[in-house]
Here is the input.
Amino acid sequence: QFVGERYLITVHGPVNAAVPPDVPQRETRSVLARIQAGRYRPRTPHELAYAIVSASTRQQERVVEQLTGDVWRLEQRVTSGDRGGDPEAFLEELFRARHALMAVRTIAVTAYDIYGRLASLGRFLPDADRHLVDDLIDQFDRVRSLADGERDYLQGVIDFYRARTETKMTIAAERLTVIAVVTLPITAIGSIYGMNVIVNEQTHVGQLIAVLAVMATISTVLLTWAKRQGWW
Here is the structure.
């Protein structure tokens, strides 16, 4: 871009193919519009770079703020015990929000290291512009801190949701086990009496009542024992 008597040259990329081509140039065009409108007159290339990178950090903070709202809504669904919808889809939504926070954090940490290295190279950085680099380092550190806080909070929500789901599955498995244990003696006795080695020409009412009584007694004893063990 030609600005006044100078050229403004910026480098963008490589960029993911899914990202619209105008997105990487959003901050640069914003600063360029301010320059062309006369609202901003950078004295040095460092001031110009500071304006562009600062616009980028502000965009990152807005992304973190948006994700904070998403995290809050997800946390409300978890703590309210909302069981509607597909659990797998909801868990994927939780991990997708965490991935977005991790992406912002990675960008901020990388930029923080780059500008930290630049600040250490004093011979390439004029003293008059050193405060600009220091401020950018502070901005990226703030973005990293915000992303870390939200990511840790969301991770706690994910852990709570998974623990509650796993606990429900464990309780269900214990109850199914109790049912299987209670019905096992009945199944065993019924299987013995159903064998062809026992053949009766007519129903023996007394014997039938006795067998049913034994089955009921065994089931009651097993249920009572399971209750005392706290299994249900």
Summary: Helices lie at 26-36, 45-79, 87-120, 130-193, 205-228. Confidence is low (pLDDT under 50) at residues 1-5. Residues 112 and 138 are 8 Å apart (CA to CA). DSSP finds five helices and two strands in the chain.
